[in-house]
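Researcher: Going back to the complex we discussed earlier. I've cleaned up the inputs and rechecked each line, so this should be the final set. Can you rerun the prediction on the complete assembly and write out the structure?
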Amino acid sequence: DAKTTQPTSMDCAEGRAANLPCNHSTISGNEYVYWYRQIHSQGPQYIIHGLKNNETNEMASLIITEDRKSSTLILPHATLRDTAVYYCIVRVAMAGNMLTFGGGTRLMVKP
Amino acid sequence: KAGVTQTPRYLIKTRGQQVTLSCSPISGHRSVSWYQQTPGQGLQFLFEYFSETQRNKGNFPGRFSGRQFSNSRSEMNVSTLELGDSALYLCASSLVSGGISSYNEQFFGPGTRLTVL
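Model: Rerun complete. Updated structure for the full complex:
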């Protein structure tokens, strides 16, 4: 699976959009981008995934650049409950369910 | 519906002992994966079971083993415990193994916190 690079930490004001970047410059054509988050003392939670088109669900939006070398997870109106570590994972979808977690980005949403 | 359950939630063992952790997946889910989380190494994949067969295995010594039963419940065992095995052990379940649709979404349990003294 391709390696990802994320900032170690970010702050965001409550109610504002949180934009979390992820670099995956070595991604190959059959690899998907997945985002999970882990709220303190809980197991990780799936957020969204995509291949090359932008995706949106009730939790977030995923913007993938045209060359697919980077992506951005957008939480449109961050709340205090969105404070968590966010993981960007790149993997081949058909290769089982193994997830390779990096260090992630620790997002702190402040009032 | 009920989420992924893991038992026990907390466990204290001493070096050299062995331990068995249990995971009950969401009803209907056939894939169970196990992860170890430590402050130093982060979240690391241990192994995945699908329909009672190990499908993937992470880079862990043979002291770490697992199995899955016909009802999809899974257990992992760690023998000859070492201090470095102290960690949060997480289990995740999903409907199938692999795939590109949302059916591949993995649901994590709350974890078992193992302390080795």
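Model: Worth noting: The first strand of chain B starts at residue 5 and ends at 7.
Researcher: Good, that matches what I expected from the previous run.
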